[in-house]
Each structure stands twice: as structure tokens, then as C-alpha cells.
Amino acid sequence: MTHQDTWTGQWVADRLGVRVDGDPALRGLLGLALRRNPRRAHLLVSTVLGKHVPQLPAAVHGAGLALGARVRDLLGPDEARRAVVLGYAETATALGHSVADGLGSAPYLHSTRRPVAGVEPVGGFEEEHSHATSHLLLPEDPHLLSGGGPLVLVDDEFSTGRTVLNTIRALHAAHPRDRYVVVSLVDMRDPGQRGHLAEAAAALGARLDLVAAASGTVHLPADVLPRAQALVEAHDEAHGGAHGGAAAGTGPAPLVRAGLDWPAGLPDGGRHGFTPEHRRRLEAALPGLGRRLAAALTGTPRRVLVLGSEELMYVPLRLAEALGHALGDRAEVRFSTTTRSPVLAVDDPGYAIRTRLAFPAHDRPADGPGTRYAYNVAPGADPSRRFDAVVLVVDDTADTPELHRSGDGLAALLAQVTDQVVLAVVPSRLPGPRTPRGTGTAPRDVGTHRTHPGPEPLRTGPARTGPAGT
Predict the structure, then answer these.
(1) Would 265 be classed as within a structural domain?
(2) Which residues have C-beta within 8 Å of that of residue 76, sequence separation ≥ 6?
(3) CATH number assigned to the domain comprising residue 367
(4) Which of 48, 131, 178, 242 is most buried, by CB atoms within 10 Å?
(5) Residue 143 CA to chain centroid, in angstroms?
(6) What secondary structure does DSSP assign to 24-58, as a single string?
(7) Residue 422 neighbours by CB distance under 10 Å
(8) pLDDT, tens digit (0-9, with 9 covering 90-100), for 260-297
(9) What is the per-residue pLDDT across 67-121, written as a single tens digit (0 to 9) for each?
């Protein structure tokens, strides 16, 4: 078996006895890694999510488009026109947005960890076993989720159903509707969990359908958690804490800022809502944005990575597509994003997270300073995995001194593993303070913003216990 044929879950399976059964497509969609999390041992690592594994942007966007088309066919044209799509941060922000694209005319919103002063959440939740902080629902239009049409909820991995069920119960209590559709790349529930979700939805008087690209089950030995923790500790001790982050080169790569000329008033994603009109404006602007990024690259890079930042996934994904079109056959463009998830890196073809860059948070997060990660960006021991250029896409809230800090800032780390770094900054959109309901005055759009502390989240039920904290 060649390295290209090696399943990227084999390293974990061999050492811990973890088994993944189900659709034949699962092994092409998922690898395995070990979490640095005392509550959960393993991480299912998607190959088409664009989070931990650099992937062709057409494959990432296409996975969501295909799921969205299936939802459109399931609902029929009338119901599809009334649907609203809700994605979960941070991993499913681009997936949810791509599902909304596949539906065609659906507005989109994703949860966020970034509070906005003066903007009251319409809901929120926490992740019980995760390193992550509270998630908020902050639509610019406070009535976005109050309509009676189908609500389409999108997460990358459907493991227990508790997250989605808690969300549905809370939103249904405030704004009942007849139909919900749950969308995921993989459905990994056991038979008992599959029945429970349908029964709970029926108790609310609503229909619930589930759409997934593949389904299966993860079988975990009873002692998997202590054995996984011991394996992480042993690997750290053997490797002196190194994680394959650096690579030999000719010196730090130069950083160049690309002027995007971002369309005025166009949101940087679905944090506060993204409408069909926003979608049309973005599609019209993408070719020119791709050409601007291509012009910022020097020389003839053959492998280019467009790297997004945590929740900011969809716009970098679409920019990666546009850059690929602008470069044509001259270069292969891949896409991935940074994350909060602490995961063990093992430079082995049978392991899904080969290398890790660790750097300080650079968007002044509301929950305080912390470490963030970029996986599989550095080449490690395999020079064929090296990117000749990295295009880093952040919003203006994240373009801070921490990003550019000498030594351990993300820009400095990227400069050690590639020949050139291009920084593209997208203006972040901030809805203004909302007027009381019934006044007939729309929320004010003030364009761009820096993050400010916001109100405490309104809980949508018990703590989140679904796919952990990425």
C-alpha cells in the first residue's frame, strides 16, 4: 500500500482498537486523530470540511452544494424558497453556507463565539466537554429565525444528536414550525440515537429529516480514554514536545498585503446573516478578487494554500476557488482554516494530523487569550507536502499585533514554512444596536468593527454535547 492509499485513521486504529464501520465512502471522508481533551479521546477528521486538512476548494464547496441540492429536492420548490439555514461554529460555518448555496435562495446564519456590544442574542449554547466558549446567535435581522418555513441545521459531524435537539427545542419553543432538516457530512449515531431524535421531533409536532453524505458507527474500546491520554503523553515525551511545525528553508518568507477592494457593505460571512442578495453580490465580485490575489503572488508558485481563520471559513473558501480560476493550470490551490481545537500531531501517513503550528489568538477573543492551531500547513518530513505560498485571510478584527508578533505569531510561523505569505484582510460587518420590536426601524449597519464584550448568551437548553469543540 502506498502512502497515497493509506487510510489516515490507521495509526489510531492500530494503537487503540478504534473501528469505523459503515458506508464504503467513510474512509475517503474521514481520518482519525487524538484530541488533547480529557473528556474525549478521538477526533473524526474530515477530508472535505476545509478545517484540519488542506483540500481543493471545489471539493469543499462541492460537498456542501451537493448536500444543499439534496435538501432542495427533499423539500420541493415551495418549501425550499421558505427555508432558512443555520450552521454551527466553528467547523460548520462554510459547510452551512455552502448548503445554503445549494438550496439556492435560502438566507444563512451561523452561530458565533464573538459577542457584539448592544446586540442581544436570540439564542446560544455551550460545549460541555470542549475547550470552546459560549456560542451565540446574533442575526442582524432579529426575525430571521422566527418564520414558519423549514429550518435547516448544518453541522459537520452528527454523533449523538443532542446539540441539534437542544437547538430545535429552544427555537421551537419561541417560534414553532412544522419542519426541520438536519444536514451533516457524516451521520455516526448508533441505532438508539437515530430513533430518539425522530421521536423527540414528533413530540414537538414537527417533522424532522436528516441528510448526510455518509453514515456509519465509531466503535470505541471501554478503556479508550485513558489509553489515548497515555499515548499522547508518551508521544510528547518521545518527541520532546515537537509537532513537525517547522521546516528547513532559506529564511523567513516576506509578507505582502493584498488589496482586495472588498465590495462596500458586503458581509464577511454568515455571523450576522447572509441573504440571497449578498450571495449575488459576492458571486459577481469573486473573479476580480481572485485576480487581485493572483497579482499579489510573486514568481511561479506551484502549490498555494489559502488559509482562513476559525469561524471565517466561507469567504476564504470562495477566494481560494477564485484564486484557482485566476491562476489556471499554473498552480494547485488548496484551502483550510485555523482552529481552536488542540489535537496531537503525528507525522505519519496513517494519521490525519501530520503537523501543527501553535500560535496566540489574534482576534482579541471575548473569553481571553488562548492558543490557536493550524494543522497540516507545515510539510513535516515530506517535502512534497510543502506549499510554495500561503494566502492568509482574516477579518479586520483579527489583523492585530498578535497576528504579526515576532517569533510565535501566526504570520511569523507561516513565514518559516513557505516561500511567501500574502495577507488579505476582509472588513468585518457589525450590526448596530437594535431598536425595540414594533418600532418599525431596521437595525443599523455600521460597516466594520472591532470586537467588544457583549451580553451573556441566552441558553438553548443543556450544554452542547455533540461534535466537540472545533
Answers:
(1) yes
(2) none
(3) 3.40.50
(4) 48
(5) 25
(6) TTHHHHEEEEEBS-TT--EEEEESSSSSSS-B-HH
(7) 24
(8) 999 999 999 999 999 999 999 999 999 999 999 999 99
(9) 999 999 999 999 999 999 999 999 999 999 999 999 998 999 999 999 888 788 8
